[in-house]
Amino acid sequence: MDNFTFYSPTKFVFGSNTESQCGSLVKEFGGTKVLIVYGGGSVVRSGLLDKIKQSLSASSINYSELGGIVPNPKDDKVYEGIDICRNEKVDFVLAVGGGSAIDTAKAIAAGVPYDGDFWDFFSGKASVQKALPVATVLTIAAAGSEGSGNTVITKVDGMLKRGAGSDCLRPVFSILNPQLTVTLPAYQTACGAADIMAHVFERYFTNTRDVEITDRLCEAVLLTMINEVPKVIKHPDNYQARANIMWAGMVAHNNTVGVGRSHDWNSHGIEHELSALYDCAHGAGLAVIMPAWMTYVKNHDIMRFAQAAVRIWGCEMDFQNPENTAIEGITRFKNFLSSIGLPVTFKELGAKEEDIPLLVKNFGIGNGKTGGFVPLGKDDIEAIYRLAL
Ligand code: NZQ
Ligand code: ZN
């Protein structure tokens, strides 16, 4: 196991009706004027936004609002939010929604105290040193942004989807009420599930040896997803299954299961170009890319893929030819994704073969290589897109 520092200071408040504690929690963390950031209307329709406002008012906390954050959030709303915070002396940013609202809130929080253009954090020109405190009320188990220090934003000019991260962007608190996720359409639930599983696989496929504890934690999260997701696809109001998935989504990405080991993250990078170009759900793009990536890199460590097949997918080990076991595991993963209603090919996603050169160009690594498990160059990236056709 590698040396590591793990700092995860978020206070998680989990369970039914926990959103009513929002006002007192903001007060506990020193907020006096809040910017509420939310999406395209689901929290308005469900009545959640009103409940949050009531809870803030009951704790004598003033607020402004920034709604209309779209999935695969864009930079324009970040600039708008930074202006509101500066003009209205906002000292706390509260996201109510999914990864898109949360990531926008984080980018605003980082941008307010920064003199330059907030995009500098995403282009790599600067790193986030300080930020307004951010908190979340989560409505979809997916991106894991409620427990992570990461944010992903798309710059409209050039449709560049890029990430930034810092421990100071970890939410000070996150309210997780599984009941809030029952209104999710089955497709969004499935997309969230694919993202959660991808966050674990990005960590599971590692070159670090002797990582039994995190291997087993990864497997536990994946087995939970395999067990629980079909239940909520069938019965969206199954609270207990929603609860298990919601906590799995947090654990999958706050790095509990990834400390002390190298990660890969190429599937995420390859996917981000799909959701930037086609505006598809991130989880749907991952469902197309992950099995293709696995197929492409499996021979780098066939025994690790065989282990995944046996421990996660219940395959029988073929000791004569472990590659057969590895392939069977990847096939079962792909079938699972299909069974919960996700696309697993370019065609099913609505992506086009003729766009592959553009996707590779936008990936933007020139003649370099990237990835922590198997470093890949642009020809490899192209081959993976082609495997996903
Ligand atoms: O916008 P509204 O009306 O709220 O509708 C949303 C949106 O259409 C809807 N939704 C959310 N909760 C709902 C609901 N509909 C009914 N009932 C509810 N309870 O679901 C749709 C998707 O919402 P979004 O916030 O976009 O989903 P998600 O949480 O999957 O976030 C995706 C974004 O996060 C990024 C992705 O790239 C993508 O941009 N990621 C962020 C990460 C991070 N910050 O650590 C890591 C991830 O790997 C990922 O890249
Ligand atoms: Zn993801």
UniProtKB/TrEMBL annotation:
SUPFAM superfamilies from the entry?
Dehydroquinate synthase-like
**Where is each Fe-containing alcohol dehydrogenase-like C-terminal domain found?**
189-388
**Where would I find the Alcohol dehydrogenase iron-type/glycerol dehydrogenase GldA domain in this sequence?**
9-178
The keyword Oxidoreductase belongs to this UniProt entry's keyword annotation: yes
Under the heading CDD domains, the entry gives: BDH
Q: Does the keyword Oxidoreductase apply?
A: yes
Q: Which InterPro entries match?
A: ADH_Fe/GldA, ADH_Fe_C, BDH-like
Q: Which GO terms describe its molecular function?
A: alcohol dehydrogenase (NADP+) activity; butanol dehydrogenase (NAD+) activity; metal ion binding; methylglyoxal reductase (NADPH) (acetol producing) activity
Highest taxon in the source lineage:
Bacteria
- Annotated keywords: Oxidoreductase
A GO cellular component entry from the record: cytosol
Q: Which Pfam families match?
A: ADH_Fe_C (PF25137), Fe-ADH (PF00465)
Q: What is this protein called?
A: Iron-containing alcohol dehydrogenase
Q: Which organism is it from?
A: Ruminiclostridium herbifermentans
Its ancestry begins with: Bacteria, Bacillati, Bacillota, Clostridia, Eubacteriales
